[in-house]
TrEMBL record:
Domain of life of the native organism: Bacteria
Pfam family, one: PhoX
Record-given protein name: Phosphatase
PANTHER family: DUF839 DOMAIN-CONTAINING PROTEIN, SLR8030 PROTEIN
Stretches assigned to coiled coil: none
Length: 682
């Protein structure tokens, strides 16, 4: 069930990357293997949040926008302390509950069906309509961003992605997807997208709740059903993006499969359109020349209906690629939403390429350009970064805000190619560390396109941006084990990417283990750390290492930064990453292959305590842990509990989870805090 709904049975199909691209083999370039000559320097990063703002490395402190993710507040970031994480880890379990460490509290902030837009109706499971759902909180909350209202310590905007729907957990009497009514399909479409919800602090605590008011200025829903998105960048208006309904190729209805994302230094939210392929049918009748391009994104081109098809063409003809073959190209982008301007039209930025975008996280480089790091979440896909043409403009002025809103519309897109520094013979696919004691090496950012100039032979800039996977193939990018969330630490400038797993690594004719993806049939995933040479986020070379190789700490194939493995929590399938203001790395998981529920973990990532990973919470049965978001004052951890009860055979009538309210399950965003007001984790 998870496979069908979450990614259209992706694992049942061969991975779409059939390129002969190199994996890390025995290529050890002497120059490349020279160990990180330069450590990451001062962080050219935006640092702002509750109560203030600052940019390190820029001439003047920024006071640009109201918030960013997990960034230290107006105060100076605290120095990283060894042993900063003092909470008692929670034990792995299979309970139908959220479990948290002793001394903490947790509560539901908002759940599926709760009213969002002013005047929205209360949820009624048995009388749901698309019109109601389009005004209520959507299904399957994934990314969570919390952006404080300007000058305000106790009001904020909660921005949440609604990645996909589980129709079997939404509609009483559900039998099959084919039996859904058109109205039910439209409910599902309205349950996709994003929500913007004004929230308020409860008392002086770290607890938050939605503001109840008849006038909710900021609250919005964006859906797959009817919301308008504007395309920007070099591919906007190109022939690939034109359709009968949009002959100019500049305006898209809806956003699909919004997975993770990020909060920008200028106070907007980025949202990654991920497994968009599963919503389309009819590719068997698409133009022959287009079929390889569709197939490269996992769209089935050999049958009218892929297995488990949602058949949204029954509600909107545009999802039938036999009639509208370009409609698929209008999804798979990074979406930017300005939650502070309730009249704004969200944009899809073609300059950041078209992939199965997990998310995008932005850092301001020392030279003022902004850099977005991105993962393409599928087995054997690539890591990317985007560097803006324009420079970030600090300040609160309208001018600065208008300027910064254009930063992601033009720039240079790169893909990563990495090499290991240990002899290939020492990487045997078991996860055994090589003789130098580290999985590590060097990497290059290979330029794909800059503005309207393509660096890929035979592809125009619009080709590269619309079929970015093919561009990555052409330049020999490195096949990774499902790159999910990629996020720079604003404390060190190092970048952390979750490689969630890859059951096919080294299986059959698939690429075998290499130093950057060192285990065959990789069930548990790993964390990939990037250190840009000279601390320059706009540069083209870096060193990398694997600080954490996930799984059962008792197993020989796991690694926790060299920390005593008897003292760490088991972790499997890292998905989303975040930082607290002390620079500790927080990791949420999706698909625990160790038999326990998914959870949220935290670990110091520098110093003597590096790798001392502890489980902070567990989510209910069948759920995935998303978000997470630690507020810049460190007083609240927001976590999205996605698809509770998503277990094969379960339905809303026969649920496998009844969290959080009893009866049946509801995806919900929770907040966890310390009643004594202290910083979470520490
Ligand atoms: Fe939607 Fe990559 O998880
Ligand atoms: Ca090595
Ligand atoms: Ca994810």
């Amino acid at each position: 069930m998870t496979c069908l709904y979450r990614c259209g049975n992706a694992c049942d199909h061969p991975a779409p990357n059939e390129s002969a691209n190199p994996y890390l083999g025995d290529v050890v370039n002497a120059e490349m293997s020279r160990r990180g000559v330069v450590r990451a320097g001062a962080v050219g990063a935006m640092v702002l949040g509750f109560g203030g703002a600052a940019v390190a490395g820029l001439a003047s402190p920024a006071a640009a926008a109201p918030a960013t993710e997990a960034l230290a507040g107006g105060r100076k970031p605290k120095p990283t302390r060894a042993g900063a994480l003092t909470f008692e880890p929670v034990a792995p379990n299979t309970l139908d509950a959220v479990t948290i460490p002793a001394g903490y509290r947790t509560s539901v902030v908002i759940r599926w069906g709760d009213p969002v837009v002013a005047g929205a109706p209360e949820f009624d499971l048995h009388h749901q309509t698309a019109a109601r759902q389009a005004r209520q909180f959507g299904f399957n909350n994934d990314f969570v961003g919390v952006l404080p209202l300007p000058g305000c310590d106790d009001k904020a905007l909660l921005v949440v992605n609604h990645e996909y729907t589980n129709e079997e957990l939404m509609f009483p009497g559900f039998t099959t997807l084919d039996a859904l009514t058109v109205e039910q399909i439209e409910v599902a479409m309205a349950a996709h997208g994003l929500s913007v919800v004004e929230i308020e602090r409860v008392g002086r605590t770290g607890q938050w709740r939605p503001v109840k008011s008849r006038r909710l200025h900021y609250n919005r829903r964006f859906t797959a059903l009817a919301s308008t998105f504007r395309l920007t960048g070099p591919a906007a208006g190109s022939a690939w993006l034109r359709t009968a309904a949009d002959p100019r190729g500049t305006t898209v209805i809806g956003t699909l499969n919004n997975c993770s994302g990020g909060v920008t230094p200028w106070g907007t939210v980025l949202s990654g359109e991920e497994n968009f392929n599963q919503y389309f049918v009819g590719a068997d009748q698409a133009p022959e020349a287009l079929k390889p391009k569709l197939a490269r994104y996992g769209i089935t081109t050999t049958a009218r209906y892929p297995s488990g098809s949602r058949k949204w063409d029954r509600a909107q003809e545009r999802f039938d690629l036999a009639k509208h073959p370009n409609e698929a190209h209008r999804f798979g982008w990074v979406v930017e939403v300005d939650p502070f301007d309730p009249d704004s039209t969200p944009r899809k930025h073609t300059a950041l390429g078209r992939l199965k975008h997990e998310g995008a996280n932005v850092i301001v480089a020392r030279n003022g350009h902004v850099v977005a790091y991105m993962g393409d979440d599928e087995r054997f896909e690539y890591l990317y970064k985007f560097v803006s043409d324009k420079k970030f403009m600090p300040g609160h002025s309208h001018l600065a805000r208008r300027h910064n809103l254009t930063l992601l519309e033009s720039g240079t897109l790169y893909v990563a190619k990495v090499t290991g520094d240990s002899p290939a013979a020492e990487i045997d696919g078991t996860g055994k560390l090589p003789a130098d004691g580290r999985f590590d090496g060097r990497g290059q950012w290979i330029k794909l396109v800059s503005g309207n100039h393509s660096f890929v032979p035979g592809m125009t800039a619009a080709d590269v941006l619309t079929f970015t996977r093919l561009a990555g193939d052409a330049v020999g990018a490195t096949k990774m084990d499902r790159p999910e969330d990629v996020q720079p630490s604003l404390r060190t400038g190092k970048i952390y990417a979750a490689m969630t797993n890859n059951s096919n690594r080294g299986v059959g004719a698939n690429a075998p283990a290499d130093e950057a993806n060192p285990r065959n049939a990789n069930k548990h995933g790993h964390i990939f750390e990037i250190v840009e040479d000279g601390g320059d986020h706009t540069g083209t070379t870096f060193t990398w290492a694997l600080p954490i190789v996930c799984g059962d700490p008792a197993a020989a194939d796991t690694y926790f930064g060299g920390y005593d493995k008897s003292a760490v929590s088991p972790i499997s399938c890292p998905d989303n990453v975040a930082f607290d203001s002390a620079g500790n790395l927080w990791i949420s998981t999706d698909g625990n292959a160790l038999g326990s529920n998914d959870g949220l973990f935290a670990t110091p990532i520098e110093g003597r305590e590096k790798g001392h990973l502890k489980q902070f919470l567990t989510v209910p049965r069948g759920a995935e842990t998303c978000g997470p978001f630690i507020t810049s004052d460190d007083r609240s951890v927001f976590t999205a509990v996605q698809h509770p009860g998503e277990i094969s055979g379960a339905t809303v009538d026969k649920p496998a989870s009844v969290w959080p309210d009893g009866g049946y399950a509801k995806p919900s965003v929770i907040v966890t805090w310390r009643p004594d007001g202290g910083p979470v984790g520490s």
